[in-house]
Design brief:
Length: 340
Amino acid sequence: MRAEDGDLWNDPHEAQKLMRERQSLEDGITTVKQITQALSDNLELIELGEEEGDQSIVADAEASIRALRAETQARQVETLLSGEADSNDTYVEVHAGAGGTESQDWASMLLRMYTRWAERRGFKVEVLEVHDGEEAGIKSATILVKGHNAYGWMKTESGVHRLVRISPYDSNARRHTSFASTWVYPVVDDSIEVDVSESDVRIDTYRASGAGGQHVNTTDSAVRITHIATGIVVACQAERSQHKNRAKAWEMLRSRLYEEELKKREAVANASEASKTDIGWGHQIRSYVLQPYQMVKDLRTGVESSSPSDVLDGDLDEFMEAALSARIEGGSGQAVEDID
């Protein structure tokens, strides 16, 4: 086996890639064995319950099989995450749309939703940059989600999200529609080269905002990098050191440029699907209605949930699985039905 080769670690990048592939295969084999065993055990319980006339045993076993089916479907989607960067960690940006406090509050709700989703999956979340709203919520934020297949799972979340609710900031209790956008792009590891020089960018420093203590708010430690040719802007204020923030911002910029290249490749490979992968402010992907009724609907796949509170608490797997399946299979076109 190559993993047992004593010379393997002479090339650390190749060794790390091989060990990740080995771990992925081992995890897959273990999962198949566990699911197979659980199915066999529950089928035996059903037979036992029917023989003894105990319907409670049969009902419990059938419920377990239904849960097992849902888990199997999720694992099937995960096995299709074979893109070049699917296994990587990922950056997630959230930006408030026009509308002031209402949209800024909605952006903070989205940020919490993705943080809760990541925590449910056992992923680690680091807050890299936050610009607070004037009264409430956030104008923008960037987090780093660390975990196996983090980018693969989250890549279909890029787009515009719409919220309809009775505004808590409206003294007349009127219904408001707010927009916020999400941008997801993979962390570029050492095996992926992205050439960009300082002459290609503009670098600005500024004082960090939000929590962090007196030092953070009184020194120009935050760093913003603008890629001149594309207009891509990244920023980091997570560290007290300007040097560390600059290094992290460079990593984020390389990741954004790499994500742009992935989009171009996908558009060339499948021109008919290009419009679905073009991420812009006018490309709404999901509506969240809290008033006058309760509904979350994905406009690409038609997947719905009548429990927005659960979705906003991170219950996103069903939406992500459907979007990934549609993307992998070529999709059947974006749903045009809207929610008002």
